[in-house]
Structures are given as structure tokens and as C-alpha cells.
Amino acid sequence: MGSDQRFDYSILGDGVNLASALKANQKLTVLQLKFGENTQKQVKILPLLR
Q1: pTM for the full model?
Q2: DSSP string covering 1-50
Q3: C-beta of residue 27 within 8 angstroms of C-beta of residue 9
């Protein structure tokens, strides 16, 4: 059953690095949501963001 071929995929790039940094930073805060700087600039509820 199955296949003799095995595929292994990875993802690379700035987006992956940003996601990793945001996830690591989440352990330091109690906030449920994390935003990158560009998203924060576009969000209309800025007083609610730190």
C-alpha cells in the first residue's frame, strides 16, 4: 500500500519569517491576535492596538 515515492515540501520567504517572529512574540503577551506593522497601519481601531 502507498507509494515508493515520498515528497517533502518546505515553505520559504519573508512571509514565513514574519509569521515565525509573530508566533514567537505571542508567548510574551496575553493578546489573542497579532498583526504585522503594515496591517496595524491599515486597521481603523488603532486605539485598541499596542
Answers
A1: 0.42
A2: ---S--------SHHHHHHHHHHHHHTT---S----HHHHHH-S-GGG--
A3: no
